[in-house]
Design goal:
2 copies of one chain form a homodimer.
Chain A lengths: L7 H9 L3 H12 L5 H8 L7 E7 L5 H14 L4 E7 L12 H5 L8 E7 L11 H10 L4 E7 L3 H9 L2 E6 L5 H8 L1 H4 L2 E4 L7 H14 L11 E3 L8 H18 L1 H27 L6 H10 L5 H9 L2
Parallel strand pairs in A: 1-4, 1-5, 2-3, 2-4, 5-6, 6-7
């Protein structure tokens, strides 16, 4: 056994050979904010941009995990390799994922064409952790055809997953007051494909009808993507193939219309900005409190200068 | 009528004379991100740091508005001038406050020693808007003895109000599954004074007992503030005087222990940082898309460079 730390390039090469331990290691280096993070992302960059990144979001109780599992099965039946990132909510104080990956793996545990990983949503309550986009890069570089990012829909995170994905699937279900939820949480703005799950239950047809009316009112210009409203029973797999078809159609439309390029640039932009801000924050916080920022904070607290003037000085420090 | 725009200094002087139209105008300049924002905050700075800033938070249904009104009445009975900022949740898409200030004013509408203002929680869903700390400065400079900031407790915002306030009051009520909520949302970490409202209802004593046990387990070192658990019926005013007393005791302890200074510096630090980040973001986004950031985003989307290297270049651009 070699005691030498593997280089990021080696790890990426092994991940690209389909070695799931290397994939897990790369994601852990990212999650742990390893000093090797930059080396890892630099090694990943040339191999990214191939996967179809699909976001899956919806309120608690709509059946997200079951739908993810059903989608994975349908994509596998189609011969596609699938990577899944399940982003779990976590307390701002405790951190940590709530679901074990083993439980999540279920029927796909022995399938080498599937990789499932839970990630904590550190930093934002219920939102996407800063490390999620980097983990998407790992699965993309590892050659998965589809990367599914599943998030709990709690407002903010829905908006974020829409920013992260090439195609966003919004899940709904009857009996959860979805009409009001839809208007409130802005889900009409973020979906490319809408799925009413638990379609065998009372009220499913009504939810689909209401959603179609709302989407028709919000419909965009000519030539825009017409967002489908599909019905599934994820538990039995009913209707899931049609979702896979819709995902493929949206991806093709995105490529041909130039929307995919625009979204990916927007995403890269948000990501660069977030990293730059984090880097500046950590520079400002350095040196054990004896920083320009600490001095400025004391001056603001004492009413000697206002916070805008202090911010100016900080930027130019 | 003069057509000349009033100077920020004039407005601050009038606000300090207790003129509520000047106070309202200053807060609006802040909320609207007026170009005069910097002028306003600079004029406010020398007059800040006097008010006792009290944060009031709790889950929906615990009786926050009623408690705020009862606290205002009790503080007024004590001769104190009170400014209230009620931070309302708003959609990330629509913005805007949900409650009208007139409804909120209620019995205090004609009292010149009280000023109540609703603010939208723009930017963060359910959280505190970036403008809340500036609005606190306005009420502080206007000479209110106590500035009460009321926020809907939805996780993130509870943590933020704790950062904003000199003293944080966490409200609970029976029948809302508070035990679980407490552990989950981390409210044990953020309160200085705990109030079980609706104390005339079944289960109130149990909520208070559970809370006391949980707080005892989480108790900090010797000499630390011992966080009281009080009971109120805000609707009738029962127990509210004891809350006012606890607020005063915590304020005195904070001043004597040095905790107040530490909190205010921490708050100023977060505020300066947020303003600096916003300024940098807007600089990066300038020039109609033909920016260094847009070029870098295209390079990252194409896999030519990784986002960390791009962020480095952005910072040094």
């Amino acid at each position: 056994m070699s005691r030498r730390a593997e280089s990021a390039t080696d790890l990426v090469a092994r991940a690209r050979d389909g070695e799931s331990r290397a994939i897990a290691r790369l994601i852990s280096l990212i999650e742990d904010e390893s000093p090797r993070l930059r080396e890892v992302t630099a090694a990943l960059a040339p191999h990214t941009g191939r996967a179809h990144v699909v976001g899956l979001t919806g309120a608690p109780g709509v059946g997200k995990s079951t739908s993810t599992n059903a989608l994975v099965a349908a994509l596998r039946a189609d011969g596609r390799r699938v990577g899944v990132l399940a982003v779990d909510p976590s307390s701002p104080f405790s951190g940590g994922a709530l679901l074990g990956d083993r439980i999540r793996m279920g029927e796909h545990a022995l399938d080498e064409g599937v990789y499932i990983r839970s990630m904590a949503a550190r930093g934002h309550l219920g939102g996407l952790s800063w490390s999620t986009p980097q983990a998407v890069r790992v699965l993309d570089a590892a050659g998965f055809d589809v990367v599914l990012v599943e998030t709990v829909g709690v407002g903010q995170s829905e908006v974020e997953v829409a920013g992260l994905a090439d195609t966003t699937v919004v899940l709904l279900a009857p009996g959860l007051g979805d009409g009001i939820q839809a208007a409130k949480a802005g889900i009409l703005e973020i979906g490319d494909v809408y799925v009413v799950n638990k379609a065998d239950r009372d009220g499913a047809a009504q939810v689909a009808r209401d959603l179609r009316s709302a989407l028709a009112l919000a419909e965009r210009e000519e030539g825009a993507w017409r967002r489908p409203v599909l019905k599934t029973v994820a538990q039995t797999g009913d209707g899931v193939e049609a979702v896979v078809t819709a995902l493929g159609e949206h991806h093709t439309w995105s490529i041909e219309s130039g929307e995919l390029g625009r979204r990916r640039e927007r995403r890269a932009r948000a990501e660069i900005e977030a990293i730059a801000v984090a880097a500046l924050r950590s520079r400002w916080a350095d040196l054990g409190g004896h920083t320009e920022l600490a001095t400025l904070a004391a001056a603001v607290a004492a009413g000697e200068i206002d916070p805008y003037a202090a911010a100016d000085r900080l930027i130019h420090s």
